[in-house]
Amino acid sequence: MYLGAHVSIAGGFDKCLDRISDLGGNTLMTFASSPRSLRTKDFTQEEIEKYNKKKAQLNIGPHFFHGVYLVNLASESKSYLKASVESLIFYQRFASQIEAVGTIFHVGSHKGRGLSETLTQIVQSINFILDNSPKGIKLILENSAGQGGTIGDTFEELELIINRIGDKSKIGICLDTQHAFASGYNMTTLLDVFDHKIGFKRLSVIHFNDSLTEFNSHKDRHANLGEGKIGAESMQKLLNDPRLKNVPFILETPGLNHSGPRKEDIAYLKSLVVQ
Ligand SMILES: [Zn+2]
């Protein structure tokens, strides 16, 4: 099974591999640029080679990118939209250079205008990104918690977008358990509903987070496994569902003081696996 976490690239891109290895994970997610900006900077060939060599040595599995949270494909501002699209294209191209799976991202927020007002722009932007994405690299839409007009909190909304995309083979879905719980999806039927509305063939990865906030709260607040409102029992059932056997699980949990997933969090995640 692939079990891992979101880790930092601070101090050199290849350092993310040391971090996930130290945590005891075998799959990882990272940014590929500063999360505080839509600006990007190319990595050197030397940095890429260093990473590739280390990845083979440490025997780490799938690497996912997470687009910066500032990305908003529903933005009213043309220049902001352009910067969002360019950031994601940079991520997709870099993903190909390091043989990552692709880029997980949040579609954005319509800020009260409604999805129907922004759907055409979103679909056109995604199609443009896909046209500029290298072969085999997935653009992965993540379900949201529905906070403040964020798009994709229901599977119907995600499906509405996917249905209008040209090359669906390049599209994946990231299912975030906390976002689903906050959006009012019952954990016992979550996977049935997901399969019915979207289908497991699109599922690329799970963001495996417990929830600090109540069911149906529409708030995006992650909790460490076993410390949240979803609870260890429901999380364990999801983790061991045979339908998710080949899907990587990534922690985006706060750890201690929001410093991110710790070694003990990965150890706890592993302990939930029923052999
Ligand atoms: Zn997430």
TrEMBL record:
Q: Which residues bind Zn(2+) 3?
A: H179, D220, H222
Ligand binding (Zn(2+) 2): E142, D176, H207, E252
**Top class in the EC scheme:** hydrolase
Give me the residues that bind Zn(2+) 1, please. H66, H106, E142
Q: What is its EC number?
A: 3.1.21.2
Q: How is the cofactor bound?
A: Binds 3 Zn(2+) ions.
Q: Which residues form the Xylose isomerase-like TIM barrel domain?
A: 18-271
- Cofactor requirements of the protein: Zn(2+)
A GO biological process held by the record: base-excision repair
User: GO terms for molecular function, please?
Assistant: deoxyribonuclease IV (phage-T4-induced) activity; DNA binding; DNA-(apurinic or apyrimidinic site) endonuclease activity; phosphoric diester hydrolase activity; zinc ion binding
InterPro entries membership: AP_endonuc_2, AP_endonuc_F2_Zn_BS, Xyl_isomerase-like_sf, Xyl_isomerase-like_TIM-brl
Catalytic activity, per the record?
Endonucleolytic cleavage to 5'-phosphooligonucleotide end-products
Instruction: Name the PROSITE patterns on file.
Output: AP_NUCLEASE_F2_3, AP_NUCLEASE_F2_4
Alphabetical UniProt keywords: DNA damage, DNA repair, Endonuclease, Hydrolase, Metal-binding, Nuclease, Zinc
Checking Pfam families in the record gives: AP_endonuc_2
Q: Which NCBIfam families match?
A: nfo
What this protein is reported to do is described as: Endonuclease IV plays a role in DNA repair. It cleaves phosphodiester bonds at apurinic or apyrimidinic (AP) sites, generating a 3'-hydroxyl group and a 5'-terminal sugar phosphate.
Tell me its family.
Answer: Belongs to the AP endonuclease 2 family.
Q: Please report the name of this protein according to its UniProt entry.
A: Probable endonuclease 4
Q: Which organism is it from?
A: Candidatus Amesbacteria bacterium RIFOXYB1_FULL_44_23
